[in-house]
Amino acid sequence: MKTINFRDSEIRHVDVLLVNPGSLGVVYQGLSNEFSAIEMPILPALFASYLRERNLSVDILDAPAFGLSPEQVAELINESFLPKLVVLVVYGFQPSASTQNMPAAGATCRAIKALNPKIQIMMTGTHPAALPKRTMEEEAIDFVCDREGPETIVAVAEHLKASKGNFNQISSLWYREEKEVVQNLPGELIKDLDAAMPEVAFDLLPMDKYRAHNWHCFEHIHDRQPYASLYTTLGCPYKCSFCCINAPFGKSSYRMWSPEWTIRQIDTLVNEYGVKNIKFVDEMFVLNTSHVIGICDHIIERGYDLNIWAYARIDTIKDGFLEKLSQAGVRWLALGIESGSKHVRDGVEKGRFGSSDIIQTVRDIQAAGINVIGNYIFGLPDDTFESMQDTLDLAIEANCEFANFYSAMAYPGSKLYGMAIENGWELPDSWIGYSQHSYECKPLPTENLTSSEVLQFRDEAFVKYFTNQRYLDMVRKKFGQDVLDHINRMLEIGLPRKQYASSAMLNS
Length: 508
Known about the structure:
Elements: E1 16-20, H1 24-28, H2 42-53, E2 58-62, H3 63-66, H4 70-81, E3 85-89, H5 102-115, E4 120-124, H6 126-130, H7 132-138, E5 143-145, H8 150-161, E6 173-177, E7 180-183, H9 193-196, E8 227-230, E9 233-234, E10 255-256, H10 259-273, E11 277-280, H11 289-302, E12 307-312, H12 321-328, E13 330-338, H13 342-347, H14 355-367, E14 371-378, H15 385-398, E15 402-407, H16 415-423, H17 451-466, H18 469-479, H19 481-491
Helix pairs in contact: 2-8, 4-5, 10-11, 11-12, 18-19
């Protein structure tokens, strides 16, 4: 497992240094110490594989894993790497988490340029792809990639190595010519993912640093490490108006790695790194029958004892899925339920199903021995106090093993963001305001509710759910007293909110 010795004087000359920016403390406040995950930056590890296949030397610097400040990242780059190109990979570990990493990414770029203005810097990721021109104008960078990333990174790195001066033939690239921001034509998406990225560059990551989400390990709460993330698909075929997942991909973006490729990566994680806790990062894993069943069959054949979680939808749970998923070690499915109001769900293009369908699907999953994490959103465009209460009532009735409560945000790259700009809706004052758990969090207002009202309802709903006696009784019976104690400690963590009261200490 790779570790970094900050006193190591060795200089690692590389063509490309991929940087995962971020600050857990700023994004999650007090939850970062024990309760939040420390996520593996799987996309930089995939990009590194793509670069290696094209004979470029590459390394990865994961700032959150080591708790590095932007200034420390800049010093390390200047003293230890001296790359031809630094690439800030500003993707989130779920689609909405890219924008919240922009403050750390921007600060890192400014710190790098302050130490060494000659270092060339690119940003890629969901947020830069959604707002490429603005990103070029606001950040201390030389390039933005407005699509997927790997092909553009390779072309720029080869250009810099050859000391060529003109970048106008590199697809999906934004750059400057005589201080003017220039945009090149978009490139094609990668078609054969297996061939393009034949393996994940786990060897470039500090594999001992990553920690699973707390709820992911409710069945073994003291065993959250080692932990790893893995993509088996890219993009999403759905068009939910609040989601920005397709900003780097465009239309018709859904592509799959083969089950054979996926099991090779799992073999490496299990046999070389001792990983049991795995997150399938796909925006929608439970979807394509041959893909899902193929991966499950490979895992079952290996006889691995895994603790996997993945995303699903109410309308993607097909006959035969649940038994296979359970046998393969899928212990949690995350369902995007979003709202208790069908009218509100219809308004954000979230599927044609009712509350009874939701409850039945939750019960079917639980009956298969799989835990459910329900995802709910307050403050969607058609929401009122009454419809938000319907959402909370549905969550309490569903009584999933865990629940995420979000405030509606117009994330750059989403249809909702375009609607917000067009209609002049109030948006966060800074990118960190898009973080659900930050002090600066600022949700969208609705026609009926202020931003503060939405956020306060969300925070109070969280407390009501996790102090509900029916829920606590289920947790004690299913997971034991240690997990119940863990939840009680989580409830003690205060999240001050600038939006509605600087002294508020409501829990997340």
